[in-house]
Amino acid sequence: MFASIAAAALAAATPATIAEHQAACAGKDGWSDPAPPIKIFANVYDVGTCGIVSLLITGPRGHILLDAATEEAAPGIAANIQRLGFQLSDVKIIGASHEHYDHVGGLAELQRLTGATVMSMSSAYLALETGKVDADDPQLGLHKPYQPAKVGIMLADGFVVRQGPLAITAHATPGHAPGSTSWSWRSCENGRCVTFVYADSVSAVSSDSYRFSDHKRYVTTFRESLRKIERMQCSLLVTPHPAASNLYDRLAGKAPLIDGSACKEYAQRGRAALDARLTKEQAK
Questions:
Q1: pLDDT tens digit string along 94-106?
Q2: Residue 94: which of 131, 124, 123, 57 has the closest Cα?
Q3: Helix, strand or coil for residue 227?
Q4: Do 126 and 148 meet the contact criterion of CB atoms below 8 Å apart?
Q5: 167 vs 19: CA distance, rounded Å
Q6: Which residues pair with residue 237 across a beta bridge?
Q7: Which residues does residue 193 pair with via DSSP β-bridges, in sequence order?
């Protein structure tokens, strides 16, 4: 089995160039708009859509997929994995940034196609298993239900997920959603190593009836998550919504791809937006 996975990893992968990706996504940034797969660095690929990142981290003993976009996008994600020369059955573990439709709507279908084990923070477990967000989610009512997935690995803050030589760390960063999870790992290519952080969304988005200022404990937790992201040592930041970290322009060379201050600046933008939201609520 390991030999077949290694052979697949050495197969003639055909990721799109960033120019091809930008051409395919010109004028599109929807959650389900199909996009070709692109290489980010070393063994890490974006196999998602024009508007949602789905990260494939490849290894000689199986791969890890982070985020599944929408149900409509799942076939395209599967096709992107195959285009890169990998077998769907070699995707062994699937995780998520958070439990909203735009990131896990395709989770059940991709679990079915790959046979992978799904992992989840306990705070996202019920949502993934039922397909419905929890009542304490600020975005309750904004996202449609999705097909339930079967969770096989329960995560905790700091849990290290291993698949062969791959090792990625889960960081609980609740705020955007109760189950928000950020991920970190190191990837190396040609003697150069970078520290990836796949930082979850930090925007204070909610339904019209939800007031963050009425949920002080949740706001405190949100702020703690922002401090955690701010302190992360990251040289290559990726976010579930690519525009939030200017990913595609960075891959195109319009801005630095590697930036040691990226996590700090990302968290600071999230904090400023949360403060602005609270100020707006209190003014009413």
A1: 999 999 999 999 9
A2: 57
A3: helix
A4: no
A5: 31
A6: 197
A7: 188
